[in-house]
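Notes to self after the Tuesday call (sharing in case useful).
The group wants a holo model before anyone commits to mutagenesis around the pocket. I volunteered. Ligand is heme C. Logging inputs and output together so the record is complete.
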Amino acid sequence: MSKSLKEIVLPVAGGTALALSAALLIANMDYGQTKIVSLENKVEQISLRAEDAAQRASKEAETVSQLRQKVAEIQAVAEERASAGSDMTEPAPTRDGAFGLGRGAMPEEVAAWDVDVLPDGRGLPEGRGDVFTGDEVFAEKCASCHGDFAEGVDNWPVLAGGFDTLADKDPVKTVGSYWPYLSTVWDYVHRSMPFGEAQTLTADETYAIVAYILYSNDLVDDDFELSHENFAEFEMYNTDGFVIDDRPELEYSNWRTEPCMEDCKPSVEITMRATFLDVTPEGGGDSVMNDASAEDTPTFVASAQTGDTTSGTETVAAVSASVDPELIASGKKVFRKCQACHDVGSGAKNKSGPHLNALIGRQMGSVEGFSYSKVFKTAHEEGKVWDEAALAEFLAKPKSYMKGTKMAFSGLRKEQDLDAITAYLKSVGE
Ligand code: HEC
Ligand code: HEC
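Result:
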């Protein structure tokens, strides 16, 4: 009996033995014959069940030992690999002049990284593939994105055509029309395609695919075969389309004069970021500032500051009844100019400027936790309140309406922008 079998069977057998001895003990205590018979029956039943259990246990034990064997096999293979793979498990070698860290890269590791191919064919593995095979592999592995004829599906890159468009306003740069070296095609495809499954292509598949891409560009006939032997001979269409950059020698000196360092601005400040100038598409990137876009803001909650107890829905109704939704929408656009510094909507936080929720009717300089400039503090002490007129005047020329304000914003020039921003700020309630 194997060790594992014992482990499982013994508790069962032990249980049976206990029951047996208990039964015999009772039998010895001079009970009536019938009782003894029925007890004997019971004992028999118990031992039958025990046999049953033992059988099941032995089956399970067999599975267990099979699994153990598998584990042992896997371990053996791993150990063999480890010992073959030189010193992976040994302590790091100490090397003079180094820091005693790490180990030398193994030849296999170097080979795995060393995949680049140069224009003269250096770095190419041996292999070959023809257009016909390439067509098949391309259809299977590349056509879903690049199209059956390398024409590009939807917005995926086009790999063929575009010849003689390079001087156009909209040049079509493809492997055929633009790439100067075949080695770039081989290397790029082998290294990084299919997109998402990089480095799954064999050398032969890559030769075949590259042959097929050349064929799609009408650069070879359908019986063409590409191999490590004829690779370097192949001339791409645009080989001579590139020049060595000679600007450092010929031109830089014409542009470079001593920089003028007089009458410079005393200091330079960042006043606006690209995200808020709408240069960066909305929703792009993980920028926290992007998240603060006004897109998902308007939420209406009763304002604590103004003591406004109107319920949310009533506020919405009142706003939409009184203000043109188009004006609000254009105000939301104007607000992009403010967004870098001001937040609105539920959960709005102070940025470099205070949040602007429930602004109309709010006391000037009253947002808790925001550190206002002196002029705002004074306005607050004087009990001044934002109404539409004050806001329009302030926003038109912040620095003259609030002399000494630290709001670095030059102002809104257009009357319609002022109307729009007011409508929008009214609509965001609190
Ligand atoms: C899932 C879509 C997808 C598949 C499948 C795919 N590609 Fe691409 N391919 C791309 C994308 C995306 C790019 C652009 C990648 C970039 O610019 O970083 C690209 C770029 C390329 C380029 C460079 C184009 C250029 O002009 O810059 C080549 C060549 C190319 N793929 C060949 C292949 C080949 C060959 C296969 C099949 C083995 C393949 N691709 C499979 C999506 C795909
Ligand atoms: C470069 C950052 C910046 C920009 C852009 C900016 N603000 Fe300000 N804003 C501030 C700062 C800082 C303050 C606080 C001023 C102070 O304390 O002097 C402020 C104050 C305000 C106040 C007074 C708030 C209060 O609680 O009293 C209003 C209203 C306001 N800004 C509206 C706007 C609007 C509307 C825009 C866009 C059209 C805008 N701001 C653009 C930084 C900015």
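Two things stood out.
Residues 3-84 form one domain.
Confidence is low (pLDDT under 50) at residues 1-14, 284-321.
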